[in-house]
Amino acid sequence: MSDKPLITSMYTADPSAHAFEGKIYVYPSHDRETDIQFNDNGDQYDMADYHVFSMDSITGPVTDHGVALKMEDIPWVSKQLWAPDAATKNGKYYLYFPARDKEGIFRIGVAVSDVPHGPFKPEPTPIAGSFTIDPASFVDDDGEAYLYFGGLWGGQLQCWETGTFDASKSGPQEPSGDVPALLPRVGRLTDDMLNFADDVKELSIVDAEGKPIMADDHDRRFFEAAWMHKYNGKYYFSYSTGDTHYIVYATGDSPLGPFTYQGRILEPVVGWTTHHSIVEFQDKWYLFYHDSSLSGGVSHLRSVKAREIVYDAEGKISLAGSS
Ligand code: FUB
Questions:
Q1: What is the pTM of this model?
Q2: What percent of the chain has pLDDT over 70?
Q3: Ligand 1 pocket, residue 292 CB under 6 Å
């Protein structure tokens, strides 16, 4: 497979890829130019709509299905349509997306369509009990659906340590020292996919000795870009380490964890952010990710790419052709 961007007609990032109806559908962020000052709060990531893309084959042409959802149509949103994901259940398609509400607090919304490419009709309010960014949906083989989410710094996860929003912790800050790292969150979804079925929980990530990954362990602690997939009966939770720029993963026996850290999938790419998804299509597995090479390294102008991944006999992941 080539290392070229899949889409060159616009900047796209945070690709959530799914095999729906015999095709690959990609649900990315739609990056755009902005004159907003760059900062570590991510204000320059000022996206206003989503396009959906599909491919009949991993090397085939990419179809742009046009605007699937835009900010003006979502009553509760003030700005920043960040990394989305999609799911299907009960014959319908659901687009989950984070955005700032009118108070500037990130919440997660859901929008519904009869077809995988949309357009999607947004619910009038964010999902009750939702907060922070980067929703990743996962429908298990038994039909139970889950939403994983969370993101540090601009993503505001550190503002929710006490359970209510603490604005004084906004911006590029997080716990440090001899304390466990902040954890991503998971919520079980109701059968209609529009609400959390019960309280959102922390998703435990531990090392090989069963000890929590610590706050100062920036090579391994969760930062953002949650993703869940299942391979050979095991649950794989993968994520970005943010300021150390790795995509890493942990495995477990339940979609609710605990998860044991396993290793890296992707080394740092051109640009600050790294964000991915993992999907099986036509008996092969692919990592969708982004980098900023097409824009010459501008961190908020990214492009989606794909690489094949393989598993060894123990279920460890590596990029195809890398070992
Ligand atoms: O695209 C905006 C933000 O950048 C995403 O929500 C993060 O995961 C990072 O990729």
A1: 0.98
A2: 99
A3: no
**Domains identified in the chain, total number:** 1
- For residue 36, report the phi and psi dihedrals to the nearest 5 degrees: -70, 135
CA-nearest residue for atom 3, ligand 1, is 82
Nearest CA to ligand 1 atom 4: 273
> Residue with the nearest Cα to atom 2 of ligand 1?
82
Question: Contact, 306 vs 58, CB < 8 A?
Answer: yes
Full domain range(s) for residue 106: 11-319
Q: Is the CB of 133 under 6 A from ligand 1?
A: yes
- Cα–Cα distance between 240 and 224 in angstroms, integer? 5
Check residue 191 and report its DSSP letter: T
Is residue 82 lining ligand 1, measured as CB closer than 6 Å? yes
Hey, which residues are catalytic here? 14, 224
Specify whether the backbone of 169 is left (phi greater than 0), alpha (psi in -120 to 50) or beta: alpha
Cα of 209 vs centre of ligand 1, distance in Å, is 31
**Which candidate, 150, 227, 149, places its Cα nearest to that of 188?**
149
Centre of ligand 1 to C-alpha 87, Å, is 19
1 has a pLDDT exceeding 70? no
> The CATH number of the domain where 110 resides is what?
2.115.10.20
Structure tokens at 260: 């044991």
Instruction: Convert the pLDDT of each residue in 103-150 to its tens digit.
Output: 999 999 999 999 999 999 999 999 999 999 999 999 999 999 999 999
Is the ipTM beyond the 0.85 threshold?
yes
- For residue 6, being part of any structural domain is answered with no
Q: Exposed, middle or buried by CB within 10 Å (0-12, 13-18, 19+), for 75?
A: exposed
